[in-house]
Amino acid sequence: MEQFESVVNFFMYLGVTVPLVGLGLLFFNLVTPYNEFRLIRDAGDVTDPVKAAAGKAAAYDLGGKLIGQVLVLASAVYHSLGLVDLIVWGLIGIAFQILIFYLFELLTPFKVLAEIPRGNVSVGIFSFCLSLASGLLMASLISY
């Protein structure tokens, strides 16, 4: 019977974390002036090197947000007292990733929001690293 409870628990937590990941990607896509998914999709146009580079930059940027958010959620699952606690930490993680992105925008001499759709892959990679580092930091800060 204990194994059955563990399986039920697994699916309950999975049923909360997967939508939170989707929600985070949706929110991030909504707060940027460009559509990351469209940039990634359009990168398949090999006749346009700018589109290809913009898609690559967006994929790095969005991939970093995804990994950073999942790190926070993994820590929240481990440390949470229940599903509500997990949801709260998940939403905080989403907000934190968005905040870090806009701090990156504010503190750099260039405009991140303009560089990614222009195909500046270096900015996308740095944004990836920033999201990964901030997600890891936040994940380590969740404790009781």
TrEMBL record:
GO terms for cellular component: plasma membrane. It is found in: Cell membrane. Keywords: Cell membrane, Membrane, Transmembrane, Transmembrane helix. The chain crosses the membrane at residues 12-31, 83-104, 124-142. InterPro entries: DUF350. Coiled coil: none annotated. The keyword Transferase does not apply. Pfam families: DUF350. The keyword Zinc-finger does not apply. It is a multi-pass membrane protein. Belongs to the UPF0719 family. This is DUF350 domain-containing protein. It comes from Paenibacillus validus.
